[in-house]
């Protein structure tokens, strides 16, 4: 314990003011403040409550007067009984001020007509230096004994000043002790080696503070959910489709899906078309002919759309508007196999819509898609597999609404009951691909293809 | 999805039943509609134009109902009520037919001249007789015409409908085309005659009509329909003449529909439009649909409207198997009848004969009938079952690699960014100090904003923009993205391909080339490629305009260039509104598959 720390330790159980401690010990108040702070850092040895008080203090000149007497007293004392020439008196350090004050106190008189020049004489035998007495009271911390008027007069003479002092009210702490040991901040290798930690006391940690952020990177939250969806598809036995082709022809994006060429989705307003490379140049010719026929004339049990189907429209390149364009390519490829085998496909990748960005519109987003092709699949199967899929996401309450989609029939919007919003919200779209899409590809008649899709962004918005 | 706005009380009156909002919502859901909003004209005005404008507006409750895009037959109150009433078996589906003129009179005739060939060569016509309008029926009639214009007629670009008070005009009517200067008439809601050319400039500022001007604006000849006295009926698809306008007192109506060339129009759209129009109105306004003749330039004569019914035969088994239910043919026939598809069991096995009305142009295949059976059965009543399809899952190799690398890059202290695949030309060219022609970029022809002019050819601009948006975060910023860029490639059917790339940036007070270089070493370690010149990887000094001279290296793996790393050029840094030095790595990961 340093001397000042010891001094700062409260001497009485009721507590004491740091100012009084400083006065008692005759040391500067700042020394005591430092001691209080270092004791506080040791824990509950003392408790100290900060407070502020105003008090009077001597100025530099005030301190000089308290020591050597007021200017007027010094002038008075310098004058011998036979008097002093005025010009000599004025040369004294206190001469000017002291002369006029002593004159107004009527302690001295000036004989202007004295031979040999003006001369100053005492008029009284002895004087009482009240200014000095008052200042000495203040110096002893007894300024309360002075009247306000007196203090203000001294302030006017720039001998006193009023200052605000921050001090501490010190009381014993819960673990008060007169002997204290310096606490260690951290355990060191040396302490472990020497065993000195056994004798040491350790500074308590501040458990309210936040930790230091670990030095690591983070995955993008949306991509984490993509991984989660990917995992679900893989668990369900779905194979990932090659969706790494953002540029698609209108043929695969629309025509192969039996979406007529005058469909509004094919407007410039909704779809990004490509100016370079503007056109696709390679199509499976037989298949293209069958697609043309089913659009313009029908077939496969269909009336068709009965319009003039144009290859020029099908050639137009675009940024795919859905990953179903890839599903179409994959189903066509499947149909080219010697023998049909059932498949389950999935993809999660970017799709594009010609939108102006705002809070609710994105020009690109991630489409999640699942496709199952097998003999004899039913609408009940589609709802069953959707139920399994959403159960894996923790969504168990589903219901289905009839909807319209050019390439699925039936088409169903999938709604889930949102426990937070307490209402049914749309979570995706689903349906059975139309025969006009599947049969021209060459898939066997009895094969049904069920599919569903949802937006990753929308799912994350409403469910996380 | 088109939205139909109907007055709730009128709707309930027509349905003969009151519903709570929830009950009606439920009914819509089952039928495939969506009660989108419950509002009033007043509320709409307050929302769109503020409280003052709404003073005195009607606060009659409106239901806004979303109708599937293929169900043109549900686009008005009448259509909705008909659909729902038949669905609830409160009403039988109506049968539509046209009649010949009473007392053996001649049908109205529309003669098409060959001048129309260049601009709008197709037209059909029909006549409605003995109408009694009420204010509400009249409004619904106009509203339906507008709904058809907006939807099946694709904002009049495909088809335009004109309706006229038949008692103010006299046939035969002539549909021809003339130079705009030679057309002169008093249009609807105007007080004097204008030439067609004057009308086009008059309507430039009309909030409604200006949207249709482009359809004929640049044509040398404008389409125009006259009666036998030279009175203008309409100048399709812009405006009707004032002379023949219909009113609350109109008793007989002449309808003409005109269409552009058939490459754009489904051959049936025109015919369907007029069918839909007359059918809705027949059902509720109760009048006669009378035939009208159309004479083509080649002398051919057709009679319209074609209210053609078609019969399809399918088996109950087909529907059961596709839907996943087990119903008798009789009950399936009953389900279909509820969807306005009158059906009967034919008596031959489980075959069902289904009659498709002219209003259901969307039914073009047995699967459409199957869907209606499933809707009537109730999607949510179908037993859900898991398909037995057995398959083994496979990941796409490039995605599998991407997933693995992403995890390890975050473990190496880099944070994943997700940036747009589309950007401006400037982002991939000027800002990276590259010439746009050397980027092999795919260009978009119709972007709405400059932010989407091209598909990105590099992941770097996206990452730099991400840093710019996160300048307040404590340094260093360490970001990466593994995703696709798009490059022109003649060998592909569409002339372009994706390329999976890994890009990372380090942004700090010092360039940190060694940090990015260390990341390359770590990635190569993960890919099991050792340092070395031949079978390994190495870097060698290179010049690339994006990087600071002397601070760029090309990366080779197994002798093949896979990308670059280096300190970015100060101009690149400032063009992305950044202030600190930055180093980057950009590599193609497809060689590692």
From TrEMBL, chain A:
Residues 1-10 have a biased composition (Basic and acidic residues). Its EC number is 6.1.1.20. It comes from Cyprinus carpio carpio. PANTHER family: PHENYLALANINE--TRNA LIGASE ALPHA SUBUNIT, PHENYLALANYL-TRNA SYNTHETASE. It comes from the Eukaryota. One of its GO terms (biological process) is phenylalanyl-tRNA aminoacylation. It is an enzyme of class 6 (ligase). InterPro entries: aa-tRNA-synth_II (IPR006195), aa-tRNA-synth_II/BPL/LPL (IPR045864), Phe-tRNA-synth_IIc_asu (IPR004529), Phenylalanyl-tRNA_Synthase (IPR002319), PheRS_DBD1 (IPR040724), PheRS_DBD2 (IPR040586), PheRS_DBD3 (IPR040725). One of its GO terms (molecular function) is ATP binding. This is phenylalanine--tRNA ligase. Residues 1-20 are annotated as: Disordered. Belongs to the class-II aminoacyl-tRNA synthetase family. Phe-tRNA synthetase alpha subunit type 2 subfamily. GO terms for cellular component: cytosol; phenylalanine-tRNA ligase complex. It holds the Pfam family PheRS_DBD1.
TrEMBL record, chain B:
GO terms for molecular function: ATP binding; magnesium ion binding; phenylalanine-tRNA ligase activity; RNA binding. Keywords: Aminoacyl-tRNA synthetase, ATP-binding, Cytoplasm, Ligase, Magnesium, Membrane, Metal-binding, Nucleotide-binding, Protein biosynthesis, Transmembrane, Transmembrane helix. GO terms for biological process: phenylalanyl-tRNA aminoacylation. CDD domains: PheRS_beta_core. InterPro entries: aa-tRNA-synth_II/BPL/LPL, B3/B4_tRNA-bd, DNA-bd_dom_put_sf, Phe-tRNA-ligase_IIc_bsu, Phe-tRNA-synth_IIc_bsu_arc_euk, Phe-tRNA_synthase-like_B3/B4, PheRS_beta_core, PhetRS_B1. SMART domains: B3_4, B5. Its EC number is 6.1.1.20. Its cofactor is Mg(2+). It is found in: Cytoplasm. GO terms for cellular component: phenylalanine-tRNA ligase complex. SUPFAM superfamilies: Class II aaRS and biotin synthetases, PheT/TilS domain, Putative DNA-binding domain. Coiled coil: none annotated. The keyword Cytoplasm applies. Belongs to the phenylalanyl-tRNA synthetase beta subunit family. Type 2 subfamily. NCBIfam families: pheT_arch. PANTHER family: PHENYLALANINE--TRNA LIGASE BETA SUBUNIT, PHENYLALANYL-TRNA SYNTHETASE BETA CHAIN AND LEUCINE-RICH REPEAT-CONTAINING PROTEIN 47. This is Phenylalanine--tRNA ligase beta subunit. It comes from Cyprinus carpio carpio. The lineage of its organism: Eukaryota, Metazoa, Chordata, Craniata, Vertebrata.
């Amino acid at each position: 314990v340093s001397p000042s720390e010891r001094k700062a330790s409260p001497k009485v159980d009721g507590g004491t003011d740091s100012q009084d401690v400083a006065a008692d010990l005759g040391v500067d108040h700042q020394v005591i403040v430092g001691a209080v702070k270092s004791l506080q850092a040791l824990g509950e040895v003392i408790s100290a409550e900060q407070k502020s008080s105003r008090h009077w203090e001597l100025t530099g000149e005030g301190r000089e007067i308290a020591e050597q007497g007021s200017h007027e007293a010094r002038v008075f004392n310098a004058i011998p009984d036979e008097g002093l020439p005025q010009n000599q008196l004025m040369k004294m350090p206190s001469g000017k001020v002291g002369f006029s004050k002593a004159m107004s106190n009527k302690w001295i008189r000036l004989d202007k007509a004295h031979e040999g020049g003006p001369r100053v004489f005492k008029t009284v035998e002895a004087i009482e230096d009240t200014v000095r007495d008052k200042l000495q009271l203040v110096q002893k911390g007894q300024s309360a004994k002075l009247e306000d008027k007196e203090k203000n007069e001294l302030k006017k003479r720039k001998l006193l000043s009023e200052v605000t002092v921050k001090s501490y009210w010190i009381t014993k702490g819960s673990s008060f002790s007169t002997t204290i040991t310096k606490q260690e901040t951290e355990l060191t290798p040396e302490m472990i080696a020497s065993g000195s930690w056994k004798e040491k006391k350790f500074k308590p940690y501040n458990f309210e503070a936040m930790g230091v952020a670990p030095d690591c990177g983070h995955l993008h939250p949306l991509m984490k959910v993509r991984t989660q969806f990917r995992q679900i598809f893989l668990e369900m036995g779905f194979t990932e489709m090659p969706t790494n082709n953002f540029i698609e022809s209108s043929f695969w994006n629309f025509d192969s899906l039996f979406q007529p060429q005058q469909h509004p989705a094919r407007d410039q307003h909704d779809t990004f078309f490509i100016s370079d490379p503007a056109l696709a140049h390679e199509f499976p010719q037989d298949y293209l002919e069958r697609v043309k026929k089913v659009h313009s004339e029908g077939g496969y049990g269909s009336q068709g759309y009965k319009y003039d189907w144009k290859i020029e429209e099908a050639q137009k390149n675009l940024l795919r508007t859905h990953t179903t364009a890839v599903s179409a390519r994959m189903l066509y490829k499947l149909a080219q196999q010697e023998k049909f085998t059932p498949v389950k496909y999935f993809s999660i990748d970017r799709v594009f819509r010609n939108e102006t960005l705002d809070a609710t519109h994105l020009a690109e987003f991630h489409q999640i898609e699942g496709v199952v092709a097998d003999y004899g699949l039913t609408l009940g199967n589609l709802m069953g597999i959707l139920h399994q899929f959403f159960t894996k996401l923790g969504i168990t309450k589903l219901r289905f609404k009839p909807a319209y989609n050019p390439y699925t029939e039936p088409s169903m919007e999938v709604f889930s009951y949102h426990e937070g919003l307490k209402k049914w919200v749309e979570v995706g779209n689903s349906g059975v691909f139309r025969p006009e899409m599947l049969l021209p590809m060459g898939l066997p008649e009895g094969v049904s293809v069920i599919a569903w899709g949802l937006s990753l962004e929308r799912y994350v918005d409403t469910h996380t | 999805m088109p939205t139909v706005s109907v007055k709730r009380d009128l709707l309930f009156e027509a349905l003969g039943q009151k519903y709570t909002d929830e009950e009606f919502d439920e009914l819509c859901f089952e039928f495939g509609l969506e009660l989108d909003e419950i509002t009033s004209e007043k509320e709409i005005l307050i929302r769109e134009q503020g409280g003052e404008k709404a003073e005195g507006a009607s606060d009659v409750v409106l239901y806004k109902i979303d109708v599937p895009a293929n169900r043109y037959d549900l686009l008005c109150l009448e259509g909705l009520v008909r659909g729902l009433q038949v669905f609830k078996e409160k009403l039988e589906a109506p049968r539509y037919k046209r009649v010949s003129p009473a007392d053996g009179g001649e049908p109205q005739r529309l003669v098409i001249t060959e001048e129309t060939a260049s601009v709008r060569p197709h037209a059909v016509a029909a006549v409605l007789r003995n109408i009694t309008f009420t204010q509400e029926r009249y409004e619904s009639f106009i509203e339906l015409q507008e709904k058809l214009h907006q939807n099946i007629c694709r904002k009049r670009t495909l088809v335009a409908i004109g309706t006229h008070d038949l008692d103010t005009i006299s046939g035969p009517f002539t549909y021809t085309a003339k130079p705009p200067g030679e057309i002169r008439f008093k249009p609807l809601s105007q007080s004097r005659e204008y030439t067609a050319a004057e009308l086009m400039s008059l309507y430039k500022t009309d909030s409604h009509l200006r949207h249709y001007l482009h359809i004929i604006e640049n044509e040398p000849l404008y389409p125009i329909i006259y009666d036998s006295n030279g009175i203008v009926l309409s100048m399709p698809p812009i405006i009707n003449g004032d002379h023949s306008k219909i009113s609350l007192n109109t008793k007989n109506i002449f309808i003409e529909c005109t269409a552009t060339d058939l490459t754009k129009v489904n051959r049936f759209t025109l015919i369907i439009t007029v069918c839909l129009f007359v059918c809705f109105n027949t059902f509720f306004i109760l009048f006669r649909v009378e035939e009208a003749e159309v004479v083509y330039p080649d002398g051919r004569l057709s009679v319209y409207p074609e209210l053609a019914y078609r019969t399809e035969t399918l088996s109950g088994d087909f529907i059961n198997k596709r839907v996943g239910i087990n119903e008798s043919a009789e009950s399936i026939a009953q389900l279909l009848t509820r969807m306005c598809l009158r059906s009967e069991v034919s008596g031959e096995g489980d075959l069902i004969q289904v009659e498709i009305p002219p209003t259901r142009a969307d039914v073009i295949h047995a699967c459409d009938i199957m869907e209606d059976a499933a809707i009537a059965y109730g999607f949510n009543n179908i037993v859900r079952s898991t398909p037995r399809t057995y398959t083994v899952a496979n990941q796409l190799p490039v995605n599998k690699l991407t997933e693995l690398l992403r995890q390890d890059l975050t473990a190496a202290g880099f944070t994943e960014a997700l940036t747009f695949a589309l950007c401006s030309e400037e982002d991939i060219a000027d800002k990276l100090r590259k010439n746009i022609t050397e980027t092999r970029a795919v260009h978009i022809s119709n972007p709405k904003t400059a932010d989407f002019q091209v598909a990105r050819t590099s992941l770097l601009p996206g990452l730099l923009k991400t840093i710019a948006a996160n300048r307040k975060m404590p340094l260093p910023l360490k970001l990466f993205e593994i995703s696709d860029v798009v490059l022109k490639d003649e060998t592909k059917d569409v002339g372009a391909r994706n390329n999976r790339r890994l890009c990372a940036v380090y942004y700090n007070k010092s360039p940190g080339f060694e940090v990015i270089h260390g990341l390359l070493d770590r990635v190569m370690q993960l890919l099991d490629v050792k340092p070395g010149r031949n079978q390994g990887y190495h870097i060698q000094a290179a010049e690339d305009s994006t990087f600071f001279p002397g601070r760029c290296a090309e990366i080779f793996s197994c002798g093949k260039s896979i990308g670059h790393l280096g300190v970015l050029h100060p101009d690149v840094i400032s063009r992305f509104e950044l202030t600190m030095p930055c180093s980057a790595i950009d590599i193609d990961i497809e060689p590692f598959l």
